[in-house]
Design goal:
35 strands, alpha+beta, 30% helix, 675 residues, single chain
């Protein structure tokens, strides 16, 4: 029987592969250089490098950047949009806002589909869903023939008020498929049935333009894996925190935009729950950026307000992740006001930090950590050697001389600014959302997360830092921990107090029937289906809603209203409990449970490990004799105090003075920030 699980996370520099033995729960990792021109080549290289027998693989899960990169670079095939007559420019007008309101010279990016390829037809549906004018089929066939001649690779159909009645859109879809059977067609009433036309049109447009790119990539990868002996479904991680099969990708390709960053958030939530912390803050610090996520009471925060390019929202539910330009390669610099800054500019992978010896002379966070003794003479098991002299020269010239600081003072200043930036990002996702960081554990991973995690936690008074066994490939681990998941929704507008529970229950059951059909189509057995309800609500007169969990059967509207008041108070620090509440939308998260292998649990034997050496490490302006530990030699139950450095293949862990650390049964290192 197949008993190996494989997860792949494709990054900009490295492709990480996580291989789990189902029988023992043991995990081994592989890293291979990414191949941006065709990510599949790196995956196949990693499979060969890891000596993976695909016929022995029971699950292959993949977090991909293909959709994200296609939208960022706009390396997209020609696509078209069919709109209601008079509304072809909805995606051009947008919300008439800008990311930087005061920069009159910076224009918002153009829509993914240019105006010449946005065509119109005559049809009209009222806001109540009444068909005022059926689709003019003469217009529809003419548009279809024009688009066929233009050779478009995908089409988005976006009609006004189709969110409440999609009949005209569906007929347009059928005509387009009749004329062009091989061209994918996305219709807004299926992709995003919501009242706000720009958000609905934008999401459908994004789905259409990435569909040919993503479907081609996914199909080629699935075929390649099958040729190698893999006999199951290829699972693709999406932004909502679940996975999709290749069949579902054909309809909802844009759900894979942002796939990679969701994996880290999933992994940090899982690791926190494993360690007994239902409230966790994911802190994924890599070479260029840091991704911060929040899990509260075992559930990730979900948002619909996200985009790849400002002005063109993608309203599929997504795990909320805040990304800032702070990583190991972030550059230190002096701004026009004479203040020290850190990032978002980065040295990247090539040339990289000054200590990499590739020609960069500007100090980075990595160079500062080398000067402070927190990093040794090599990384990645000796594959990268670090030059102390070059790091020192960069710190002196970039910060020491301009700010008249001594070498170690300058290095600490660089690190302090970086830590402050990352702490502010954590505050934005915690304190500003009504969460107290002191009630959370910080899960630090990524290549540089464990270097800075303890200092960031101390600044926020977070009591515990969790460092997983393989911090550098934790995002790949996240791909192993997910279920098949789809999100379904429908408009349901009205005053909450006047709504009959039976009417709301009927709306939910209609969506749940659709969800069961979708999961069954993907091979999920009835016993493995889990349907989670929610209602979006708002105070009467508002136009932004909050999502509230709903029970399996609706019998009491008052309980939903009370839950909304509570959610509003936590989110915005006030609740208007005497104000009327409106219902906006009903939604169902459809989950197909994928059996998961438990990570290996070890016998805990308390003890003090022997360091492999000592070196001088600087903290708060003083040099300390810090113990150096090899993580591979630490056993479950090992406990030690800072100052200490723990080195391993894919990361380095810093335990500052006055902090202590211990290894748990799952080989996570828990750093306690208070003595």
């Amino acid at each position: 029987m197949a008993n190996t699980r494989v997860a792949v996370d494709v990054g900009g520099t490295f492709t990480d592969i996580c291989i789990m033995d189902e029988a023992t729960g043991r995990i081994r990792i592989e890293k291979t250089a990414s191949t941006p021109d065709d990510p599949m080549r790196a995956i196949i290289n990693g499979i060969e490098q890891g000596r993976i027998d695909l016929s022995d693989v029971s699950m292959f899960s993949h977090g991909t950047t293909v959709a994200t990169n296609a939208l960022i670079t706009r390396n997209l095939p020609r696509a078209a949009m069919v709109c209601t007559e008079g509304f072809r420019d909805v995606v051009e007008i947008r919300r008439a806002n800008k990311e930087d309101l005061w920069d009159t010279y910076k224009d918002v990016a153009k829509p993914y589909i240019p105006r010449r390829d946005r065509l119109t037809v005559r049809e009209r549906v009222s806001a109540e869903g009444e068909i005022l004018s059926a689709l003019n089929e003469e217009d529809a066939y003419l548009v279809a023939e024009v688009l066929k001649k233009r050779g478009v690779a995908a089409i988005a159909v976006c009609f006004m008020n189709s969110y409440v009645n999609g009949t005209n859109e569906q007929r347009m879809h059928d005509i387009l498929k009749e004329v062009m059977p091989d061209v994918p067609v996305s219709i807004s009433s299926q992709i995003m049935p919501e009242i706000f036309e720009h958000e609905r049109f934008s999401t459908t447009m994004a789905n259409a333009v990435v569909s040919p790119v993503v479907v081609d990539y996914v199909s080629r990868l699935a075929d390649k894996l099958a040729d190698g002996g893999y006999a199951r479904e290829l699972l693709l991680l999406h932004t909502g925190g679940g996975v999709m099969t290749t069949r579902a990708v054909r309809d909802f390709a844009a759900r894979l935009a942002g796939s990679g960053i969701a994996a880290g958030a999933i992994a940090s939530r899982f690791i926190g729950n494993l360690c007994g912390f239902p409230n966790t803050i994911g802190f994924d610090m890599g070479g260029t950026s840091t991704d911060v996520s929040v899990s509260y009471q075992g559930e990730s925060r979900i948002t619909k307000d996200w985009y790849i390019e400002y002005g063109f929202p993608i309203r599929f539910p997504s795990i909320e992740v805040l990304t800032i330009g702070a990583g190991g390669g972030s550059l230190a610099w002096k701004d026009e006001g004479g203040s020290l800054r850190n990032g978002p500019q980065s040295a990247g992978a090539d040339p990289g930090p000054a200590c990499y010896k590739n020609g960069n002379t500007t100090a980075t966070n990595t160079d500062a950590n080398v000067v402070l003794g927190r990093l040794g003479s090599s990384l990645a098991g000796g594959k990268i050697t670090l030059d102390f002299a070059l790091a020192e020269a960069a710190v002196r010239s970039t910060v020491g001389a301009p700010f008249e600081m001594e070498l170690h003072e300058a290095a600490e200043a660089i690190v302090r600014v970086a830590n402050a930036n990352m702490a502010n990002a954590v505050r934005l996702l915690s304190i500003s959302r009504g969460y107290d960081p002191r009630d959370f554990a910080l899960c630090a991973f990524g290549g540089a997360g464990a270097l800075h995690g303890a200092a960031v936690a101390r600044e926020l008074s977070i009591p515990t830092v969790i460092v997983p066994p393989n911090p550098g490939v934790t995002s790949a681990l996240g791909c192993l921990l997910v279920d098949i998941q789809h999100d379904f929704s429908d408009s349901f507008m009205g005053a909450a107090a006047e709504t009959e529970p039976a009417d709301l229950e009927t709306a939910f059951q209609r969506i749940e029937d659709e969800a069961r059909v979708q999961l069954k189509r993907e091979g999920v057995a009835e016993k493995d289906m889990m349907l989670q309800r929610s209602v979006e609500m708002m105070y009467q007169g508002q136009w932004r809603s909050l999502e509230v969990s709903a029970p399996p059967r609706i019998t009491d509207i008052e309980a939903l209203i009370a839950a909304f008041h509570e959610a509003h108070e936590r989110e915005y620090n006030y609740a208007l409990k005497t104000s009327p509440v409106s219902l906006f939308r009903v939604a169902v998260k459809a989950v197909g449970i994928v059996p998961k292998a438990e990570p290996a649990k070890n016998e805990v034997r308390p003890g003090t490990p022997e360091p492999i050496g000592h070196r001088k490490v600087w903290f708060d302006g003083k040099a300390h004799d810090a113990a150096i530990y090899d993580r591979d030699r630490l056993s479950a139950g090992a406990a030690f105090s800072g100052p200490a450095i723990v080195e391993q293949f894919d990361s380095t862990i810093v335990v500052p003075p006055s902090m202590s650390a211990e290894v748990d049964a799952y080989m996570n290192i828990l750093i306690h920030t208070k003595a």
